[in-house]
Amino acid sequence: MIAALVLLPLLAGLAALLVRRDGPRRTVLLLTAFVHLGLSASAWRRAPAPLWNGWLALDPAGRLFLGVTSLLFAVAAVYAVGFLAREEKGKQKDADEAGAFFLNGPEAIFVGCLLFFFSAMTFVTVCQHFGLLWVAVEATTLASAPLIYFHRNHRSLEAVWKYLVVCSVGIALALVGNLFLAVAAAPNGGPAVPLVLSEILNQAGHLNVPWLRAALVFFFVGYGTKMGLAPMHTWLPDAHSESPSVVSALLSGALLNCAFLALWRAAQTGVAAGQAAFVQDLFLILGLASLAVAAVFILGQTDFKRLLAYSSVEHMGVIAFGMGIGGSGVFAALLHSVNHSLVKGMLFLLAGNILAAYRTKAVAQVRGVSRLLPVTGPLWLAGFFAISGMPPFGTFLSELLIVKAGLDSGRWGVTGVFLLLLTLVFIGMSRCFLNMAQGRPDGNGLVSPTKEKRIAFLPSLFLGALSLWLGLTVPGFLQRLLQETAARWGG
Amino acid sequence: MSAWDQALWVAFILLNFLLLGTSRLSVCVRVLSAQGFLLAALPWLSSSAITGHTVVLSAASALLKGLVFPWFFMRALDAAEVRREVEPYVGFGASLFVGLAALGFCVWLARALPHPSAVSNVALPASLFALMTGLFLIVSRKKAITQALAYLVMENGATALGMALLHWEPLVVELGILLDLFAAVFVMGIAVYHINREFDHIDTDRLNYLKD
Questions:
Q1: Which of A401, A392, A385 is nearest to A470 (CA)?
Q2: Is A428 strand, coil or helix?
Q3: What pLDDT score does A279 carry?
Q4: Do B158 and A160 touch (CB under 8 A)?
Q5: Residues of B (81-110) whose Cβ lies below 8 Å from A
Q6: Which residues, in sequence order, are CB contacts of A381 under 8 Å at separation 6+?
Q7: Residue of chain B minimizing CA distance to A129
Q8: What confidence tens digit (pLDDT) does each residue in A15-25 have?
Q9: Would you call B1 an interface residue with chain A, using a CB distance cutoff of 8 Å?
Q10: Whole-Å CA distances, B84 to B24, B34, B46, B79, B194
Q11: pLDDT of A444 above 70
């Protein structure tokens, strides 16, 4: 079962590279996505048997993030089929630079890498062995790099180079974290403890504290880079803004969660070893730093895809803040990561529609989305409310729970700073979103409402509806899984 | 721990200084290759027993890090037709001083952590130093290809750290790491090729369009 989950997209990716015609290749993409979703759903109901002495297993945290990843990928796959169909062949006008042209990368490589990327993310969710986890996280970077460079111009090239270098270096530091953790487990050269999560947790009381703390710092820097926590987030705005929107949606909604899962597993060992306060402090510092950086760059933002990218930095900060508060904040942080994935996926897909209609990413040149795009426009506004944590959307509930956890734990100061930063972000976001939605579309020769294709807006509509559902009620099966996951955190 | 073992670690440190001080790209590639062979040789000289595991890894390391990656870089250099100089942001003399300071820091760090038994005194600072050298080279050198090279130096440092701490990951994990590394060099190589074609050179200081 676990093997099938990882191998299915991997083999499908190979097949996609070999298939020559576009139609069958897109069918392979869709089929893989939905079969995988079915497998994930059954894994969600009943945990599959572990493989390789428990090195690969689906614990509650793995099941949670596997489910989110699989769902988001299925939605993105539907959108991707529409996206690939509407992309012109041959030279395309560059939206951001007058007179410039660019080519698209080969579609076979795009679909193939999309599936490899999916396989790598699935692999992250099932890895219980820290070494394998590292291999999987690095694989996600390498598989997604060609996706960012699909629109072959110098900006996406710059973005992909930064992504490769910053993330590879960050993840190399996480490898050092692995080694230090191994020393912490056997400081006197005794019999080596296998670096499997359950074994380490069993031995947690005997871990050597200085080595463990050093390991935790390396893990936080390493996997924190990939998760987009400030100040290691520098790759994120570039990669998210320059890649095709469907890729941005996956990077933001699925990949950042996978990095969070890797960090979660590493930090879990710290909590089990009685270093909960240290772990929480690291989470709090990085969380507030991310919120502050995001607030500063969102307030002056002129590019709507970069705006969404910084909003991802913000929400990773919110998740880290919830983890830093601890207690019921852990549950809230997990719920928030689910909510954020749904809403951010929705918004990036909508941004793709807006980009396709207006052919610009500049906020100032996009006016009257509500008039011009009768479905995308209202959804764009709904997405704005959802991402800002307004009721009745799911993000409202999770952010409220985080604030409540903060106040309950008596940390008034940091919770106040948290709320202040969220307010600043809200002000910056509202300026951009409202300006884009309202007014009359002018310039670009766009005036009359266009008929939108279903395949372009149904994926976003679906994600928005899910987010709304999670705001009205957290369904029992999700609630149980979240509680089970949070219970494993300890602390 | 044998004298040979110590000597290899010292050679490892000196190679990093060579990387910091040289102005020629081809020397950098050769140093990288030498580091690969050193890493392959280390397990044979240390006191731990030789198993099938070490043989496979040592061979894979010599093959990939000693031969394949340097060959790949040499080819990329030929294809890119770039000036074969390193082009630093930070001068070579200053780089050497930074290296010296970094080495001092690594020695301090290695002493600050409780010393695991059976680990050589130089091994821990030497491998941390390679890690730091790689990091510094990434931020202080202009060419994209030097950055890719420096990433491998960092990775060599991490591998050396594993050897220094006498911690062997299970074979499948070690091979997975090597596979990732191979893919990384491959993907970065393609990116360097595209940077060269797009800009007619591979200096990363022209990659400055995206910012806030």
A1: A392
A2: helix
A3: 95
A4: no
A5: none
A6: A370, A433, A434, A437
A7: B173
A8: 999 998 999 99
A9: no
A10: 6, 19, 37, 12, 18
A11: no
Q: What are phi and psi of A289, to 5 degrees?
A: -60, -40
Instruction: Name the residue with tokens 């690939």.
Output: A84
User: Which uninterrupted H or E stretch holds A101?
Assistant: strand A101-104
Domain ranges of chain B: 3-206
Instruction: Report how far residue A316's alpha carbon sits from residue A228's, in angstroms, rounded to the nearest whole number.
Output: 7
* Exposure string over B35-63, b if 16+ CB within 10 A, otherwise e: bbebbbbbbeebeeeeeeebeebbebbbe
For residue A135, give Cα distances in angstroms to A82, A419, A451. 32, 37, 45
Is A287:A318 a contact under the CB 8 Å cutoff?
Answer: yes
Which amino acid is located at A308 in the chain? L
Q: A102: part of which helix (H) or strand (E)? A: strand A101-104
The structure's pTM equals: 0.94
Rounded CA-CA distance B202/B194 in Å is 9
Encode A50-83: b = buried (16+ Cβ within 10 Å), e = exposed: bbeebbbbbbbbbbbbbbbbbbbbbbbbbbbbbb
**Closest residue on chain A to B189 (Cα):** A161
Q: From B199, which residue of chain A is nearest by alpha-carbon distance?
A: A154
User: Residue A373: is it exposed, middle or buried by C-beta count within 10 angstroms (0-12/13-18/19+)?
Assistant: buried
Sign of CA dihedral B44, B46, B52, B53: negative
How deeply is B6 buried, as exposed, middle or buried, from its count of CB atoms within 10 A (0-12, 13-18, 19+)? Answer: middle
Q: Report the amino acid identity of residue B7.
A: A
Contact A287, A344 (CB under 8 A): no
**Number of other CB atoms surrounding residue B83 within 10 Å:** 11
| Mean pLDDT calculated for residue range A232-236 | 92
Q: How far apart are the CA of B7 and the nearest CA of chain A, in angstroms?
A: 23
Q: Smallest Cα–Cα separation from A233: which of A180, A306, A299, A303?
A: A306
What's the ipTM? 0.91
Q: What is the mean pLDDT of residues A393-403?
A: 94
